[in-house]
């Protein structure tokens, strides 16, 4: 992604990944983590997938004050970059967090 984003945006992306990976380490009990990035149509889509214990999406990640604060902070950082956040999780089937942000023209 070198050259796609100004240094301030690169730093924010780094912090987003730092938060995601820290949360996986603290909460997921995952044996594997996969990270990918794809550029298409002027946007970059980042994805982090783990095979951890997951959580019940029906209860909503916002319902847990501790987990919710970290994910709400992620959502806010991504929104400040003009992007959007998607989270998919299912108990005992892992979690996928993806976000898309515009690339520099």
Total strand segments? 4
Percent of residues in helices:
25-40%
Query: How are helices and strands ordered from N to C?
Result: HEEHEE
Amino-to-carboxy terminus distance: 13 Å
Q: Describe the sheet with the most strands.
A: 4 strands, antiparallel
Q: What does this molecule look like?
A:
The protein has about 100 residues and is an alpha+beta fold. It is about 35% helix and about 30% strand. The protein has a 4-stranded antiparallel sheet with strand order 1-2-4-3, covered by helices on one side. The longest helix has 22 residues, at about 5-30. It starts with 6 loop residues before the first helix and ends with a strand. The mean pLDDT is about 90.
Produce the secondary structure layout:
Elements: H1 7-28, E1 33-40, E2 43-50, H2 65-80, E3 84-89, E4 95-102
Antiparallel strand pairs: 1-2, 2-4, 3-4
């Amino acid at each position: 992604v070198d050259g796609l984003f100004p240094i301030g945006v690169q730093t924010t992306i780094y912090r987003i990944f730092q938060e995601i990976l820290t949360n996986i380490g603290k909460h997921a009990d995952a044996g594997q983590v996969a990270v990918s990035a794809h550029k298409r149509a002027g946007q970059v889509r980042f994805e982090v997938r783990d095979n951890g214990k997951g959580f019940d999406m029906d209860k909503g990640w916002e319902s847990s004050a501790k987990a919710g604060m970290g994910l709400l902070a992620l959502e806010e950082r991504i929104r400040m970059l003009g992007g959007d956040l998607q989270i998919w999780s299912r108990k005992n089937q892992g979690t996928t967090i993806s976000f898309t942000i515009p690339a520099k023209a």
